[in-house]
Every structure is written in C-alpha cells, then in structure tokens.
Specification:
Pfam families: HscB_4_cys
Strand content: under 5%
Helix content: 40-55%
Largest sheet: none
InterPro entries: HscB, HscB_4_cys, J_dom_sf
Number of helices: 6
Structural class: mainly alpha
Radius of gyration: 20 Å
Keywords: Signal
Shape: elongated
Low-confidence stretches: 6-36
Number of strands: 0
Protein name: Iron-sulfur cluster co-chaperone protein HscB isoform 3
Organism: Daubentonia madagascariensis
C-alpha cells in the first residue's frame, strides 16, 4: 500500500516501525492521562532523567538523579524476589553500586548531587544489609 517515499517518510516520522508495515508503535504517553509521566532531570530538564542504565544518572548531562522511592530492595540489588539469594552476587552488586553512588565520588559536584549520593548510598547499604541476613530478608519479603 504505502511504498517508496511515502512509506519511508512514515517510518522516519515514527508512524511505522521498520520491518512491520502497517503497524504503529504504541506510545506510552498517549495511554497515560497525565501525558508525559517520565521523570525529568533536575539539572538539565531533559525527559527521562533516570533513563540510562539503572536510572541513577541523566542520559544527557550525567547528573545523579534522586532515588526512586517505589523501587524495592530486590530490584535495586538485581536479585530474584525470593528467600534464596546468591550472596556472592549480592555482594558483587553492592560493590558495583557503591562504586557508582558513594559520596566520596561526588565531593567536587553540586550540593544537590552530594545529597542524592548520600541518599542512594544509604539505600544501597540498607538493601544490602536487609537482603544479606536470612531473618531480615524473610521479614522484608512478607512485609
């Protein structure tokens, strides 16, 4: 039906995904009544402030973003939500996250990023301590 230049223009405008003619991609913004619900970067204002990697940094200006209050410890520490946890993997993830968000790495940054770094680091510490011990992990699971 739409071939040649017209089809190419529709694909460029995002109305057709490449390789699936006649289908339009669903837009998450159209489904939400509030419009664009993705968080904006506090520093540069770009949409999807925590869009890169684990959502800790802005994809545009690389500023540390505020912690997500809805994120649970299991998803933060990249573990399955179950009582059995690989403690070696948990320790590795803890060290990996602390290398990203530890306040010592933000000494030359703005006060806002220093504050976010402290909050992230505290959250990572709490998650690690909670998931490492079987009793606190079990209590966290049932809460």
């Amino acid at each position: 039906m739409w071939k040649g230049k017209a089809g190419a223009l529709l694909r460029v405008w995002g109305l057709w995904p490449a390789g699936v003619p006649g289908r339009r991609l669903l837009n998450c913004d159209a489904a939400s009544p509030a419009g664009n619900s993705s968080p904006r970067c506090w520093n540069c204002g770009s949409p999807g402030g925590g869009g890169r990697g684990d959502g800790f940094f802005c994809s545009q200006c690389r500023a540390l973003q505020p912690p997500d209050p809805t994120r649970d410890y299991f998803s933060l520490m990249d573990c399955n939500r179950s009582f059995r946890v690989d403690t070696a993997k948990l320790q590795h993830r803890y060290q990996q996250l602390q290398r990203l968000v530890h306040p010592d790495f933000f000494s030359q940054r703005s006060q806002t990023e220093k504050d976010f770094s402290e909050k992230h680091s505290t959250l990572v510490n709490d998650a690690y301590k909670t998931l490492l011990a079987p009793l606190t992990r079990g209590l966290y699971l049932v809460s």
